[in-house]
C-alpha cells in the first residue's frame, strides 16, 4: 500500500511529521503517512503547472485524452474488490456500500466524462456588428486544487477529478487526513493507465496543507467538499485572489411526509435515507416532517426499525451500519444526543455508545428523537451521524416554510401519493436536489450541489464541464 505523496510522477515521503490513518472499526492504526510541507505543496503545484503547459498533456488530442479516462475506468473496475475493502477499512462504510455504490459510481463518472472530452464545444452567435464573425470556445482553467472529504473519499474525489481531466486541466489532490488511502491507490492506477507525470499529484495532511493549496498563486481553481465553516474560509480566500471556486458543503435535509403518504411504504426509504453510511452523508434525511396525527405512529415505527440494524465491522457481510470515521465524530454525535434530551425531545432508541467488542471502534447506534421542535439545535444543526429527528406539523400549507427554515439547502425528500402535491412542494423547497418518493439517488449526468449555506456551484453533468473551463470570445473581422 502506497503511503507516500505523488508529486510530478514521483512518489516521495516528504519531510513533514507523521500522522496515522485509523481503522474506525477497531481503532487500530491502519497506516502512517507524512504531512505535506509548504515546500511539498509548492512542488506539487509547480509540477501540475508544468504538465499543463507540456505538449504531452496540453497538446494531447481529445480522443487520446478520452481513451486515458476510459483506461482509468477499466482499471478501477478491475480493482473494485481491492478498492472497496480499502475504503471500508479506512472509512468504515460497509462493503455493500463501498463495493455496491462508491466504487461503481467512480467508474461511471470516469466513463461519463470520457464521453464529454470530444464534445466540449463553444457557440457561434450572430452579432449586431457588421462584417464580424464571432465564436466562443471553452478552454481548461489550469491547475485545480481538489480538496476532498472523509465520508466518501474515492467517489467524491472522482466527481471532481474526472471532469477536471476531461477538460484538460491538471490537479493537486488533498484528501481528508482521516481517509487518504483509496486516493493514493487511485493515483497508482492513474499512473498505470498512462496519464502523463504531473497531471495528477497528491499531497497528504490536514488543514494546513489545504490552506497552502488554496493560497498558492498558481492554483487557478479550488473544488472543496466539506463543512460549511471551512467552505466559508476557502470561499473568502478564493474571493480575495479572484480564483474560481466550487463548494459542496453541509446539509440538514428535510424529509416531508405528506398526510396522504403510506407510512409503511415510505418507512424503509426514510430509514435508509437517514442512516446510509451511519448518517455521514451531507444529504442524509435527518429531519422528518410528519402530520401531527400520525407523528407518534411514524416515530415509533422508525425507532423500532432502526433498533434492528446491526452495528459492526464493515467487512462483516452481516453488518448494516459501520462505525463513524473517528472518535471525534462519536463525541459529536453523543454531545448532540445529550443536547436533544436537555432541550426536551423524546429519545425513542439509541443514544448510548455500545460496549463489548464494539467499544474498541468508533461506533454509535442509530438514534431517533420524537416530538422535536423546529427551534431545537438537533433539528437545525448538522450532526453528521446516525441521529434522526421527527417533527410534527399541523397545517400542510406550512410544510415548505418549515423545510426552508434552515441555513442549509443541499437536498430534500418529499413523500406523497398525490404527484401534484409532491411537485408543488418540490418547486417551493429551496434545495439543490429534491427526491420524490425515493431515497437518495445520484448519477454522473445529474447536476449536484447546494443552495444557501450548502454551497456554490454544481458537480456532475454538463455543469461540471462549465466548472472546469473558461469561456473565451473570439472576434474576426470579415472586412
Q: Give me the CATH fold name of the largest domain.
A: Aldehyde Dehydrogenase, Chain A, domain 1
- Quick one: overall form? globular
What is the rounded distance between the termini? 63 Å
Low-confidence stretches: none
CATH superfamily (homologous) name of the largest domain: Aldehyde Dehydrogenase, Chain A, domain 1
Count of strand segments: 21
The rounded Rg comes to: 23 Å
GO molecular function: oxidoreductase activity, acting on the aldehyde or oxo group of donors, NAD or NADP as acceptor
Family: Belongs to the aldehyde dehydrogenase family.
Domain Aldehyde dehydrogenase: 11-474
Active site: 248
Features:
oxidoreductase activity, acting on the aldehyde or oxo group of donors, NAD or NADP as acceptor, single chain, Aldehyde Dehydrogenase, Chain A, domain 1, six-stranded mixed beta sheet, oxidoreductase, Aldehyde Dehydrogenase, Chain A, domain 2, 2 domains, 479 residues, 21 strands, 22% strand, 39% helix, seven-stranded mixed beta sheet, alpha/beta, Betaine-aldehyde dehydrogenase, Ald_DH/histidinol_DH, Ald_DH_C
Amino acid at each position: 500500500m502506497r503511503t507516500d505523496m505523488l508529486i510530478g510522477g514521483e512518489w516521495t515521503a516528504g519531510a513533514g511529521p507523521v500522522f496515522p490513518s485509523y481503522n474506525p472499526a477497531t481503532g487500530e492504526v491502519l497506516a502512517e503517512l507524512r504531512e505535506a510541507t509548504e515546500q511539498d505543496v509548492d512542488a506539487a503545484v509547480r509540477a501540475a503547472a508544468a504538465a499543463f503547459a507540456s505538449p504531452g498533456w496540453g497538446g494531447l488530442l481529445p480522443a487520446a485524452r478520452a481513451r486515458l479516462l476510459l483506461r482509468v475506468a477499466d482499471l478501477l473496475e478491475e480493482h473494485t474488490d481491492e478498492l472497496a475493502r480499502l475504503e471500508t477499512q479506512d472509512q468504515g462504510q460497509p462493503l455493500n456500500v463501498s463495493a455496491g455504490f462508491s466504487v461503481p459510481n467512480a467508474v461511471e463518472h470516469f466513463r461519463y466524462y470520457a464521453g464529454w472530452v470530444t464534445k466540449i464545444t463553444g457557440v457561434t452567435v450572430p452579432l449586431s456588428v457588421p462584417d464580424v464573425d464571432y465564436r466562443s470556445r471553452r478552454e481548461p482553467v489550469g491547475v485545480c486544487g481538489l480538496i476532498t472529504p472523509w465520508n466518501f473519499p474515492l467517489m467524491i474525489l472522482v466527481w471532481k477529478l474526472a471532469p477536471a481531466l476531461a477538460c484538460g486541466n491538471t490537479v493537486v489532490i488533498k484528501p481528508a487526513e482521516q481517509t487518504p488511502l483509496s486516493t493514493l491507490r487511485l493515483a497508482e492506477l492513474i499512473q498505470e493507465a498512462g496519464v502523463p507525470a504531473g497531471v495528477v499529484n497528491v499531497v497528504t495532511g490536514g488543514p494546513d496543507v489545504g490552506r497552502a493549496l488554496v493560497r498558492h498563486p498558481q492554483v487557478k481553481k479550488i473544488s472543496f467538499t466539506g463543512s460549511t465553516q471551512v467552505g466559508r474560509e476557502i470561499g473568502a480566500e478564493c474571493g480575495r485572489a479572484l480564483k474560481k471556486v466550487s463548494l459542496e458543503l453541509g446539509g440538514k435535509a428535510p424529509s416531508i411526509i405528506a398526510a396522504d403518504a403510506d407510512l409503511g411504504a415510505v418507512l424503509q426509504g426514510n430509514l435508509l435515507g437517514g442512516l446510509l453510511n451511519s448518517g455521514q452523508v451531507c444529504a442524509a434525511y435527518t429531519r422528518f416532517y410528519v402530520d401531527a396525527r400520525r407523528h407518534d405512529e411514524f416515530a415509533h415505527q422508525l425507532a423500532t426499525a432502526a433498533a434492528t440494524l446491526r452495528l459492526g465491522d464493515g467487512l462483516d457481510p452481516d453488518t448494516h451500519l459501520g462505525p463513524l470515521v473517528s472518535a471525534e465524530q462519536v463525541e459529536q454525535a453523543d454531545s448532540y444526543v445529550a443536547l436533544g434530551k436537555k432541550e426536551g425531545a423524546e429519545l425513542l432508541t439509541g443514544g448510548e455508545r455500545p460496549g463489548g467488542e464494539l467499544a474498541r471502534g468508533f461506533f454509535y447506534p442509530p438514534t431517533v428523537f420524537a416530538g422535536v421542535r423546529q427551534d431545537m439545535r438537533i433539528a437545525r444543526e448538522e450532526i453528521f451521524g446516525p441521529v434522526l429527528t421527527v417533527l410534527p406539523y399541523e397545517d400542510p400549507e406550512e410544510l415548505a416554510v418549515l423545510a426552508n427554515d434552515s441555513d442549509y439547502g443541499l437536498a430534500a425528500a418529499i413523500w406523497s401519493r398525490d404527484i401534484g402535491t409532491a411537485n408543488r412542494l418540490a418547486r417551493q423547497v429551496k434545495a439543490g436536489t429534491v427526491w420524490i418518493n425515493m431515497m437518495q439517488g445520484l448519477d454522473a449526468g445529474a447536476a449536484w450541489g447546494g443552495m444557501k449555506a450548502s454551497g456554490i456551484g454544481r458537480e456532475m453533468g454538463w455543469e461540471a464541464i462549465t466548472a472546469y473551463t473558461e469561456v473565451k470570445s473570439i472576434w474576426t473581422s470579415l472586412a
